[in-house]
Amino acid sequence: MSDCIFCKIVRGEAPSWKILENEFVYAFLDINPVSQYHTLVIPKKHFENIFDIDDKYIMEISKVLRHLSQVYQQRLGINNLQIVNSNGSEGQQDVFHLHFHIVPRSLGDGQNIQWRTHPEWRTQFDQWLEELEL
Ligand code: AMP
Ligand code: ZN
Known about the structure:
By secondary structure, the protein is α+β, with helices and mostly antiparallel strands. The protein contains 3 helices and 5 strands; from the N terminus they run H-E-E-E-H-E-E-H. The chain has a single domain (5-132), classed as HIT family, subunit A. The longest helix has 22 residues, at 55-76. The radius of gyration is 17 Å and the shape is globular.
């Protein structure tokens, strides 16, 4: 993907603040951080999102997500963080190269992910499972 910004970062054609790199995964600071050490973890090969990533890469990304979380805890004392991943434009994905955000959180950081819940939909659960046919 020649014009993908994250592919350019992996190839060293665009600047980044690299946290970690291995054969499969690249991790770097988000250019618009919402908290200190806000990090993006991406596959070095181009996949659009969760719908096309392969087994090997998603596994390697998972390992790095855990590893970096533990490193941030041990080195930086970060005991609270959110791991966020968006897929598809209606799923609020903006860069179409799969990425996971690691967002360290702390009391009074001014951030707040809030979901609108629908407990009234519990009556539909049985029907949802039937339609899914798994
Ligand atoms: P999303 O909305 O989940 O697709 O997030 C895309 C993220 O990529 C945003 O948080 C951007 O700040 C970040 N981003 C976009 N371009 C760059 C870049 N060149 N270097 C680092 N982060 C970037
Ligand atoms: Zn890419």
